[in-house]
């Protein structure tokens, strides 16, 4: 439905927008990713008669991207894939609340010239690194999964990886279009 948020406006945020929100009993984030893929792919196919859409992010004179919405969508594991791109070991997700981890992430941001205005918390620093190095890869629909607990206080803790949660964000054309997680139920 239609929503209004009393917040600022910029190129990627409008205070008035349309959103789709749902909750599903007994579902986890794998179920939600499957539903999201089917919903988005079905909508694109219904509108365009194809899963492939041409998009010019910088206007009609700019570069043209062909975005394929046919499932399955690529999945990037936030911490593992960020480590691969940065070619370094990140702090253990279970220790991201510590000053040592915050300092390590701050140093990484400085090394890679990634800006982060105060407060420079571990969650904000990590979010800036992900924005610079993972989200920029997400032209075709891509899920970024398994966010650390410090970034996801309402998400259920990951069933097998300590320090992470069962959360995902879906990006298309480098923009976040979906944020979801297994509901915290303990």
Automatic annotation (TrEMBL):
GO cellular component terms given for this protein: aminoacyl-tRNA synthetase multienzyme complex; cytosol; mitochondrion
Residue ranges occupied by any Aminoacyl-transfer RNA synthetases class-II family profile domain in the UniProt entry: 1-186
Any Pfam family the entry gives: tRNA-synt_2
Q: Name one GO molecular function term.
A: ATP binding
Q: Which domain of life is it from?
A: Eukaryota
Which segments does the entry list as coiled coil?
none
Q: Which SUPFAM superfamilies match?
A: Class II aaRS and biotin synthetases
Q: Which Gene3D superfamilies match?
A: Bira Bifunctional Protein, Domain 2
Q: Name one GO biological process term.
A: lysyl-tRNA aminoacylation
InterPro entries the UniProt entry points to: Aa-tRNA-synt_II, aa-tRNA-synth_II, aa-tRNA-synth_II/BPL/LPL, Lys-tRNA-synth_II_C
Indicate yes or no for the key word Nucleotide-binding.
Answer: yes
Q: List keywords of the entry alphabetically.
A: Aminoacyl-tRNA synthetase, ATP-binding, Ligase, Nucleotide-binding
**Protein name as it appears in the record:** Lysyl-tRNA synthetase
The species is Troglarmadillo sp. 2 MJ-2016
């Amino acid at each position: 439905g239609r929503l209004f948020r009393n917040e600022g406006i910029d190129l990627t945020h409008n205070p008035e927008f349309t959103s789709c929100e749902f909750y599903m009993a007994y579902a986890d984030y794998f179920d939600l990713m499957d539903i999201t893929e089917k919903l988005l792919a079905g909508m694109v196919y219904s509108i365009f008669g194809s899963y492939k859409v041409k998009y010019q992010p910088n206007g009609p004179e700019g570069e043209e991207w062909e975005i394929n919405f046919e499932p399955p969508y690529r999945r990037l594991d936030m911490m593992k894939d960020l480590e691969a791109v940065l070619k370094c070991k990140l702090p253990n997700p279970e220790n991201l609340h510590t000053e040592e981890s915050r300092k390590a992430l701050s140093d990484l941001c400085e090394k890679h010239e990634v800006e982060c205005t105060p407060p420079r918390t571990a969650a904000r620093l990590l979010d800036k690194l992900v924005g610079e190095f993972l989200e920029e890869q997400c032209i075709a629909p891509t899920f970024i999964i398994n966010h650390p607990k410090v970034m996801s206080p309402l998400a259920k803790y990951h069933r097998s990886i300590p320090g992470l949660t069962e959360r995902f964000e879906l990006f298309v054309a480098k923009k976040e279009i979906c944020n979801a997680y297994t509901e915290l139920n303990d």
